[in-house]
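Researcher: Here's the sequence for the chain we discussed earlier.
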Amino acid sequence: MNIILVYDVGEKRVQKVHKLLKRYLNWVQNSVFEGELTDGKFEAMKIELKKRMHQDEDSMIIYTLGSLKYSGREIIGIEKNTTDNLI
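Model: Thanks. This is the structure I predict for it:
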């Protein structure tokens, strides 16, 4: 499954969430990650994220894309993190 994840968490939790997400996905830009995960890794990531979030203060949006056949990606301006493993 292909994932785009964006988050907005409290300042004290940003580094912990960022570090956790780098284990699962590719960092694209401030508070934005993308990549491909198995169903099991996706569920494990969500469990770990819920432990680190304060659900009354933090926000996370996860876009799941079943297919990339009709998807595109365009960067305007500088690319924050170059990687060859993008969705």
